[in-house]
Design a protein that fits this description.
With 189 residues, the protein is an alpha+beta fold. The chain has helices spanning 8-19, 35-44, 55-71, 75-85, 113-131, 163-182, and strands spanning 2-4, 89-96, 101-107, 137-139, 148-150. The strands form two sheets. Strands 1-3-2 form a three-stranded antiparallel beta sheet.
């Protein structure tokens, strides 16, 4: 597997999705409870599936490490943490393309799914810090959510870890509150 250094938006999205599989985000339900769910997550994100029994524990540790970096976005801490995540890299190569060349990082031949996820998360964090800055690391803005995310949107105004879920819940709650405020009150006798 090769991860292009300019694919940081995709890689940061994978890191965000990974941290938001944690039980604290889903009120106690772990979205990566077993190897089958890890394989499904990897396939969904085009990560090579080469799992070992210890891979699930390694991915759970990775999830905690990435969440810790997002929660404390201090420049040097992000750089050092993300650099450690990329330790599974074998080499950096120049990919020749149609009219442009891109730098990419390759995995070691013995790399597992957890190694690949670690590399992808590290590239995502490093790319966002370099290109967009440390202010792009956030906790979810929904009052009942414990999620976190890396904002790679152009304007940098994303508020929710899962806009389709958390953003929708907030919008529905606000709509119901507005509707309740405008409902005429009936007097009971």
């Amino acid at each position: 597997m090769q991860v292009a250094l300019d694919d940081y938006v995709w890689a940061a999205g994978v890191a965000t999705d990974l941290v938001n599989t944690a039980p604290e985000v889903w009120h106690g339900e772990d979205k990566l409870p077993d190897l089958a769910s890890l394989v499904a997550f990897a396939e969904l994100h085009s990560i090579p599936v080469i799992t070992r029994p210890s891979d699930l524990r390694a991915v759970h540790r990775l999830r905690v490490a990435v969440r810790d970096l997002i929660d404390q976005p201090i420049h040097d801490r992000l750089i050092n943490g993300a650099t450690a995540l990329t330790s599974t890299a074998a080499q950096v190569t120049l990919l020749a393309g149609a009219g442009n060349a891109r730098w990419a990082v390759s995995l070691k031949p013995t790399a597992t799914t957890s190694d690949a996820l670690s590399l992808v998360c590290g590239i995502g964090i490093l790319g966002v810090v370099r290109t967009l800055g440390t202010e792009r690391f956030h906790a979810c803005g929904a009052p009942t959510c414990q999620g976190a995310f890396i904002d790679t949107t152009r304007p940098g105004r994303r508020r929710y870890c899962m806009p389709g879920l958390c953003g929708n819940r907030v919008n529905v709650a606000n709509h119901r509150a507005r509707r309740a405020a405008h409902q005429p009150r009936t007097k009971s006798v």
